[in-house]
Amino acid sequence: MIVVRALLFDTFGTVVDWRGGLISRLEEWGKSRGIDTDWPMLVDGWRMAYPPSMQRVRTGEREWAVLDVLQRESLLSLATALGIKELDDAAADEMVRMWHELPPWPDSVAGLHRLRTRYVIAPLSNGHVALLVRMAKAAGLPWDAIFGADVFRHYKPDAETYLGATALLGCQPHEVMLVASHPSDLDAAAKCGLRTCFVSRPLEYGAGRVVEAIPEAGRFDLMVDGLDELATSLGC
């Protein structure tokens, strides 16, 4: 039986639907402003620009910056490539803030409420605290604490994030489980001594699109199809 005291959650893709949420918001937003473009292409490109932008911070190529700043830089570059000429500073800021109000997956809120009855639960995200607080309010996510990258001034998969959150919770690494839909995130957490749970989110990048291969059985401590299933597996 797995015994842990706290659960940390990757957020974008694991708890909230970034792709579906952004496409829906941007289509409505663009229509109201007379801006017409391939919004799914923009969203997919935006997400693919996300890891390289953080990597430049992680390697010291650029100074520390919170995710909003990195997302804004990526957005402006994509908008130019897609020929969106109507994107002034105010419009860019509005689009970046859409990452603060993404919809939860259907099982997320109920599953988190169940898990919270037995465990301390908190996001461990590359988003910053202000973003995650707004997201929790908008989506109804019942966190006990919030750990954004700005708390540690490091982005995952730097060990400082996993070990920093564990220490702030007063736990040893083996007393904490990372819950994520991204095997690379879980592998990094496991190297730091955390327990791991893979959550399958087959629609994260769009139907039929796979960015990270589904992990083989036994690679992580648990493998589930949603947070409700995780709650059941952990006896909540």
Automatic annotation (TrEMBL):
Pfam families: Hydrolase. It comes from the Bacteria. Signal peptide: none annotated. SUPFAM superfamilies: HAD-like. Coiled coil: none annotated. GO terms for molecular function: (S)-2-haloacid dehalogenase activity. Its EC number is 3.8.1.2. The keyword Methyltransferase does not apply. InterPro entries: 2-HAD (IPR006328), HAD-like_sf (IPR036412), HAD-SF_hydro_IA (IPR006439), HAD_sf (IPR023214), S-2-haloacid_dehalogenase (IPR051540). Keywords: Hydrolase. This is (S)-2-haloacid dehalogenase 4A. It comes from Cupriavidus yeoncheonensis.
